[in-house]
């Protein structure tokens, strides 16, 4: 059951996003709140204060995930949860992750305003270290929650300065005592900016996310021989960079040959010894392949492995291919996806089905609960950037769809009007 006349307060949602953005604000209008830093702690304190003001019961688990619970009429029912993260990239924006948390908070506030109580409890989650920019693994809090890796793996992870997650949680006051995971969930919804250009290009307000692309990450080490750039003839060189650039292009060709959902990226390149007149002897680079279809992603992986093997023979170098991470394509729960589609239709928002090419906490939550996502456009498709931007009207629309979908999943009854 849902009350289609109920709407969130778009101005209040926007103001909350702008207030949070002051914590760790950067010169170009973005945010730097790396996970478990002092600034992340300040951001957590601010949002937890708002959650308490909205009457939510707060708990924190052992990996620092924060949960705010709004009781339902039937406490035996599994909760309907929404959430995201508030940690950012070093040069992040105001909306990535933060929008999902603030949209969830605004839903709690809107229900309070109208004196509405859901049949099932509602919960708002703030997941620890989604970005993975300071600590790996990425999507840490939701990963432990979903049983994808042990709590000890997360707590013992270190940053580049050798600081441990365990100690940094203590430092900012979010080393919780609750066990990680095991919370019964009837549904999980996550609202997010798209972080890509499709909705804006198609002039759609709502992206109905049907699932996520599968992902394979690799490290590649190419080893040749350093030699003098002048005296060494081309025919006898073992040029690690020449071989590596061939492979870097191949990762792009593989993705282009599997459109529209194929993705291929080289994000990090390190060349040794890095001298102008020395033939490179070692190259390290990262490779990223993605697709929405598991069989197609497997074919892309097979072609990539073959390319690496052939490059070693062709260029007279050693190619070491290391598997780093694998997320299979994740379809979201069809009934919840339909809830989102129906709510967008009822509200008159233009919408389209879309898949997410980025990793989100929702991808892990889909392992343990029925899950769906809502996208709204971001300007120019730009994210993970200080100039990341979104229109207030689009953010409001996405939160209204989230509200309707959560009420459809949780059931709602009006107890009494709350007057201002």
Structure characteristics:
420 residues; alpha+beta; nine-stranded mixed sheet; five-stranded antiparallel sheet; 16 strands; elongated; disordered C terminus
Characterize this entry briefly:
By secondary structure, the protein is α+β, with helices and mostly antiparallel strands. Helix content is 35%, strand content 22%. The chain has 12 helices and 16 strands.
Structure description:
This protein has 420 residues and is α+β, with helices and mostly antiparallel strands. The protein has twelve helices and 16 strands. The chain has helices at residues 10-21, 38-53, 98-114, 140-145, 151-155, 165-172, 198-202, 240-256, 294-315, 334-347, 361-365, 392-410; strands spanning 57-60, 66-70, 79-84, 116-118, 122-126, 185-193, 206-212, 214-223, 263-265, 269-272, 282-291, 318-327, 330-331, 351-356, 371-376, 412-414. Strands 1, 2, 3, 5, 6, 7, 13, 14 and 15 form a nine-stranded mixed beta sheet that branches. Strand 1 (57-60) and strand 2 form a beta hairpin. Helix 10 crosses helix 12. The radius of gyration is 23 Å and the shape is elongated. It starts with 9 loop residues before the first helix and ends in a 6-residue tail after the last strand. The model is unreliable at 415-420 (pLDDT under 50).
